Amino acid sequence: MKHVLDRPIWSALATRHQAFAEGDSLARRYRPSIVPFAATAADDAESLRALGKLLPPLESAILVQTDKIILPAELAAISTASLVQMVAEQPVETVSDERVQQLTEADAAGMLALASLTKPGPFTLEALSLGDFWGVKIDGRLAAMAGERMKQPGYTELSGVCSHPDFRGGGLARLLSLFVANRITARGEVPYLHAYDSNVAAVRLYESIGFRLRTALNMAVVQRAG
C-alpha cells in the first residue's frame, strides 16, 4: 500500500479537506479560489479522463505525486519541477517568542502581498480557510509568516514560510517554522513540508530544525490543451 503522502493532494481532498473539494471519487481539486491543486485517485484511464473533465479551458492546476505524472489527452503540462517532501517525525525544538501572533482575515492583504513578493508557493486570500497562519510584524509591517495547508490523517503540511527581504537574516523563517511545527506536533500529528529540490538553502534550513527527507515528488502545472 502506498504512503498517504505519496499523493498528498488526493489524500487531503479525500479525507480532512473533503469540504474544500470539487470532483468525484476519481479526480478532485480544491476550489480554485483557495489553491490551484488537483489530483487523481490513481493513474488509470478512467481517473485521468475524470481529471481532464475537471478543469475548464484556460484554468490551470498543480499536480504533485511520487509517481510519474501521466496526463489525459485533454491536458498539457505548462511547466514541471522536482520537489522534496520532508517530515519531522520526532518533536522539534520548542520555541517561544512574544512577537509571534496569529494572523487573521484582517491580515489577508498583507499576507498576499508578502507571498506575491517572496513566492513561497501558491497563496490566495482564502488560504486561511485551510489552516492557521502565524507571523511576526515589525514596525507595523508583516515581516514573516508561516502556516498550515494540506491535512491528511495524522499529518499537517507546514507551508507559506517566507520572510520579507528587508527582514531576512534575523532567523524569522526558522522561528516560525519551528512554532508552527510545534503546534502540529502538540495535536499528535506529524508536520511535513514541500520544497523545490533545487532550493538548497531551504532544504538545509529544514534539516537543521529536525525535518528529514521522506521522498522525491514530481510536480506539473497543467492546463487544457489547445
How would the blueprint of this fold be written?
Elements: H1 8-13, E1 21-23, E2 27-30, E3 38-40, H2 45-54, E4 60-65, E5 75-87, E6 100-102, H3 108-118, E7 133-138, E8 141-152, E9 155-163, H4 172-186, E10 190-196, H5 200-208, E11 212-224
Parallel strand pairs: 9-10
Antiparallel strand pairs: 1-2, 2-3, 4-11, 5-10, 5-11, 6-7, 7-8, 8-9
Summarize this structure as a short list of keywords or feature phrases:
eight-stranded mixed sheet; alpha+beta; 23% helix; 226 residues; 5 helices; 35% strand; three-stranded antiparallel sheet; globular; 11 strands
What can you tell me about this protein's structure?
The chain has helices at residues 8-13, 45-54, 108-118, 172-186, 200-208; strands at 21-23, 27-30, 38-40, 60-65, 75-87, 100-102, 133-138, 141-152, 155-163, 190-196, 212-224. It is of the alpha+beta class and 226 residues long. The protein has an eight-stranded mixed sheet. A three-stranded antiparallel sheet has the order 1-2-3. Strand 2 (27-30) and strand 3 form a beta hairpin. The chain is globular. The chain starts with 7 loop residues before the first helix and ends with a strand. The mean pLDDT is 94.
